[in-house]
Amino acid sequence: MFCPLSWCGAIAGLIVGGLIAPTTSARAAGVLTVAMTAGDLPTTTGNPDQGFEGFRFVGWNLYDALINWDLSQGDRASDIKPGLATEWHIDPANHKRWIFTLDVVVRMLGGLWGKGRAPIPLALVPLTTGQVLDVGDFTIGCFPVRRRETDSFGFCFESRAPRHLRPDRLAALGVPDGPVRKDLAEGKPVMLDDGRTVDPEHVLGPAERRKKLVVVGDTETTQGLAEWVRDADLLVIEATFLDRDSLIARDYGHLTAAEAATLAATNNFQLLILTHISGRYGDEEILAVATKRFPNSRVANDFDHIVI
Ligand SMILES: [Zn+2]
Fold it and tell me: In degrees rounded to 5, what are phi and psi of residue 12?
């Protein structure tokens, strides 16, 4: 979203220039110079308080409002309609405080290709904590990550817990080779040629362990992450700084390598991959710190392939 104040500064500069331009030169060039005021803060009409002038000349609002008045009906009081904000409500604890939900990101992504022109079908959905997607073989969930005032998330990819057919049970029940076994492996009950029904629970072994990959981007702390990242086969997480620069790390809202590795060491990870290393360090410096706390640490390289 544009900052109204910086717009004001830029526009005010232009206007002043127009006002003090010698009128003679304007006349000589045959140009009508019009002094106009432009956007300050929005008023309740959805325009800047001096902005209708600007709208008249440039043809569009000089900013986007969070919400707009619906002025389409003249026979009743105007209601509010969405602007940048798609949803809003009044804080029950403080009636002077309005809370807005913005769809700026959705619009930005939508603008990459234009409506309906993305190379694959796209559905943009707001993220909330919990499962985001279930594509059968794996699920994707997200969880909150603290980073300054942002709504940041980490992501957890988990495979479905595999269950294998038990040959001894198949033989005992006389389940023939072929499509019926495939159906049973997929958890579907089948009817055999002799009319008997076989339930998958009668032939499937116990669930094996799910594979878990967790990816965390920028985060100012590891506090609160354990419950989401525990038992990961692989955690990919930033480790921008070293402890000697921990004050800068706090200022920038980033982790140190020691913090990332400590998270790994205390939460039963198999492998830790560190990313987003500050250019002020060599990878070996980061690794030396991380492996001291969690030996199975690596620094990510572009195009790495890692099988878990
Ligand atoms: Zn960053």
Answer: -60, -40
